[in-house]
Design brief:
431 residues; alpha/beta; 6-stranded mixed sheet; 5-stranded mixed sheet; 18 strands; 21% helix
C-alpha cells in the first residue's frame, strides 16, 4: 500500500558524563585530577534517498533514537561520541511537529540532509576544574540531556503539473497516454488511490505531471480521502482540470470545475490562484443535434472570459492531447521557476531546550531606556548560542520572538533605540 504519512518519535543521544578521577602513579605523590570529558550524544539526521518513493519504512517502527555519548575516563580519556541515526526519506517529505503541525524540515530542493535533533553535549571531566585554590576538584559536569520529539512525516509529491478532477473523468487514461506511467485503470470511483507521477516530453521541453486521486465534495474538510490527496498538489505550479465534457455519468462539467476550485480554495487559497487549464475530455463521446448546444462551447463561454483556457481532448483517441501539452508547457514557462519549498516554522533547539523555563523583563530603575531580561530560559539559550556569528545572532533573534520575550518587552514599553541587557550582553532594540 502507498504510504504518504507516518507519525514517529525521534530522540537524540544523551551527552556522556564527565569523569572524576585523580592521577595515581608510583613516585607521583599528589597526582592532579585527570577525569576526562564525556562524549557528545548522536544527532537525528534526515536524509533524502532518491530510491524511495513512499514512507513505508515508518509504518511499523515508530521510535528512533541516536546513540548516547560515553562517559569520560581516567587519564584524561575522552568518552566516545554517540553514533548519529540517519533516517532516509523520499524527496518531497515534510517533517512536521506532530502537535502544532508546524514545519521542521522540508526535504526537497537543495535541502537533502538536515539535523533535526542535536545530541546532548558531553560533560566536562574534573581535570577542567583544577585551580590554584581548588587543586582536587571532586566533581564533574553531567552530560546534557537527550531531546525527544514526536513528528509527523508527510510526503508531498514534487511535480510541475497537477491533474485534478472528479473520479472517472479520465485522468489516469490521460496520464498513461502522455507519459510512461502505468496507473491502474478501471471504471469505479476512487480507482486511483495513489498519486501517479509521469514525465511528459514535448517539442519545447519536458515536465513532471501528477495524477492526484479523484476529489469529492468536502475533500478540504477531510471527507473521503480528500485531505490525504490534496497535500500532493501543494508544490505543483499549474493545474489541469480534467472534466467529462460528454457527461457520460450524468455530471455537469461546469459545476464540477466550480466544486473542485471551491475545494482547492478551502484547502489552500494559494493553490487556487495558480494557473489553470481545462481539458474537456471524452470529446469522442459527444453527440449534439440541432436542439442542444455543444458542451465545449458552453465551457468556453463560462471560463475563457475568466482567463482559463478550455482545450477539447480525447484521452482514448489522443485527439487534442498534443495541443494541450504544448499549452501547459507554455504556462509553465510563464510561471516562477523556483521550487516550492516550505519554510521552517518549528525550531526544536528553541522549543525543547527552553520549554517551561521562566524569564523576567524589567525596566532599569536608574535608566528608563534600559530593559533587563533575565531567567533560566534566557541564560540557557545564551549558553547554546554563538552570538559572534551572523547565523547564531539571527537564531537568537528568532528565539526572542518565539519565546515571547519581544512581546514582553513591547508590553513593558520599550521603544526603538532602547537598550536590552541580558547577562552581560547589550543590544539596541529596533523593530
Amino acid at each position: 500500500m502507498f504510504a504518504d504519512r507516518a507519525k514517529i518519535v525521534i530522540a537524540s543521544g544523551k551527552g556522556g558524563d564527565g569523569h572524576v578521577s585523580f592521577r595515581r602513579e608510583k613516585y607521583v605523590a599528589n597526582g592532579g585530577p585527570d577525569g576526562g570529558d564525556g562524549g557528545n550524544g548522536g544527532n537525528v539526521i534526515f536524509v533524502v534517498d532518491k530510491g524511495l518513493n513512499t514512507l513505508g519504512e515508518y509504518r511499523h517502527k515508530h521510535k528512533f533514537k541516536a546513540q548516547d555519548g560515553q562517559e569520560g575516563g581516567k587519564r584524561r580519556c575522552h568518552g566516545a561520541n554517540g553514533a548519529d541515526i540517519i533516517l532516509k526519506v523520499p524527496e518531497g517529505t515534510v517533517v512536521l511537529e506532530a502537535e502544532s503541525k508546524k514545519v521542521i524540515a522540508d526535504m526537497s530542493g537543495e535541502n537533502q540532509r538536515q539535523i533535526v535533533l542535536k545530541g546532548g553535549r558531553g560533560g566536562k571531566g574534573n581535570m577542567n576544574y583544577a585551580t590554584a585554590t581548588m587543586q582536587v576538584p571532586k566533581y564533574a559536569q553531567p552530560g546534557q540531556a537527550a531531546q525527544e520529539l514526536e513528528v509527523q512525516l508527510e510526503l508531498k509529491v514534487i511535480a510541475d503539473v497537477g491533474l485534478v478532477g472528479f473520479p472517472n473523468v479520465g485522468k489516469s487514461t490521460f496520464l498513461s497516454r502522455v507519459t510512461n506511467a502505468q496507473p491502474k485503470i478501471a471504471n469505479y470511483h476512487f480507482t486511483t488511490l495513489n498519486p501517479n507521477l509521469g514525465v511528459v516530453d514535448t517539442e519545447n521541453g519536458g515536465f513532471v505531471i501528477a495524477d492526484i486521486p479523484g476529489l469529492i465534495e468536502g475533500a478540504s474538510e477531510g471527507a473521503g480521502l480528500g485531505h490525504q490527496f490534496l497535500r500532493h498538489i501543494e508544490r505543483t505550479r499549474v493545474m489541469i482540470h480534467i472534466v467529462d465534457a460528454a457527461s457520460t455519468e450524468g455530471r455537469d462539467p461546469i459545476d464540477d470545475i466550480y466544486k473542485i476550485n471551491k475545494e482547492l480554495e478551502a484547502y489552500n487559497p494559494e493553490i487556487a490562484k495558480r494557473p489553470q487549464i481545462i481539458a474537456a475530455n471524452k470529446v469522442d463521446c459527444i453527440f449534439v443535434d440541432e436542439n442542444t448546444e455543444n458542451p465545449i462551447d458552453l465551457l468556453k463561454k463560462e471560463f475563457e472570459p475568466k482567463g482559463i483556457e478550455v482545450v477539447p481532448i480525447s484521452a482514448v483517441t489522443g485527439e487534442g492531447v498534443r495541443e494541450l501539452l504544448l499549452k501547459v508547457k507554455t504556462l509553465l514557462d510563464q510561471c516562477p521557476q523556483e521550487a516550492i519549498v516550505f519554510e521552517q516554522e518549528f525550531f526544536p533547539e528553541i522549543a525543547l531546550i527552553t520549554e517551561n523555563l521562566p524569564f523576567t523583563v524589567e525596566r532599569d530603575e536608574e535608566d528608563s531606556s534600559v530593559f533587563i531580561c533575565e531567567g533560566p530560559k534566557i541564560e540557557k539559550m545564551l549558553g547554546y548560542t554563538n552570538l559572534d556569528s551572523e547565523k547564531g545572532f539571527a537564531f537568537f533573534q528568532k528565539f526572542l520572538k518565539e519565546a515571547g520575550i519581544l512581546d514582553e518587552l513591547e508590553a513593558a514599553g520599550i521603544e526603538e533605540g532602547d537598550t536590552v541587557r541580558m547577562y552581560g550582553f547589550e543590544f539596541d532594540y529596533y523593530k
